[in-house]
Model the fold of this input.
Amino acid sequence: MRRSSWKIRIFIGLAIVAFAFIQKCSNTEENPYTGRSQHINMSADQEIAIGLQSAPEMAQQHGGLYPDERLQAFVDAVGNKLVQNSIARETPYQYDFHLLADDQTINAFALPGGQCFITYALFSQLTEAQLAGVMGHEIGHVVGRHSAERIADSNFWKTATMGATVGAGDMGGLVGGIGQNTLLTNGRGDELESDDLGVLFMIQAGYDPYEMIEVMKILKAAAGPNRVPEFQSTHPDPENRIEKIRESIQKYSNQ
Ligand SMILES: [Zn+2]
Done:
């Protein structure tokens, strides 16, 4: 490669990285429901569409929906009670609460735009108030727009990586589309924000927020010495979260 050629490559590479960075900064907006500044490059309608599109596949991976209509209606009722009594009601999202047939995997998750799920394995260990804790946490992911934020992050890194690979003289290896990991992997900050919102939603809907701490204990016991990998990737250590949950209960109980 001639000397002038690699100089141009590095210049173009740096320009792409700079473009990615400027785009990221220009996509900063304040979440009206949490007050937190976020880098997001999609509308609420797009979030809803992504969630609705991914929901059947996610359900299928956990054995589809649990066949008992009564239990489905119960999960829906608890979820809707949380929505109707909180700021979630004022968001544009379409909340739906699904009980999954999977009786082996302890898990719960939310897709962007309002689709929330809990496996029967977890559901069967919970009281109503504890179910409200889990669903409040999942609604927190939706209101906090955590998936949209992860998607914007991954786009940033894709563009930045493209800049780096152009600079290095190799355009191959770029991946497109939104992977499941992007949708479901929440950072530690996301989990803590969802716990905090979950506590608030529980209090507003008339549930005992201390039951959120019981949820953490159940999760910890369920994980056991051999932690369930899915759970580990989406929900970090329950032990560390309990302290923060106590702080949230203090904060919101005094309001
Ligand atoms: Zn979570």
In short: The beta strands are 28-30, 37-39, 96-100, 108-110, 115-119. The longest strand covers residues 96-100. The radius of gyration is 20 Å. Residues 23 and 52 are 27 Å apart (CA to CA).
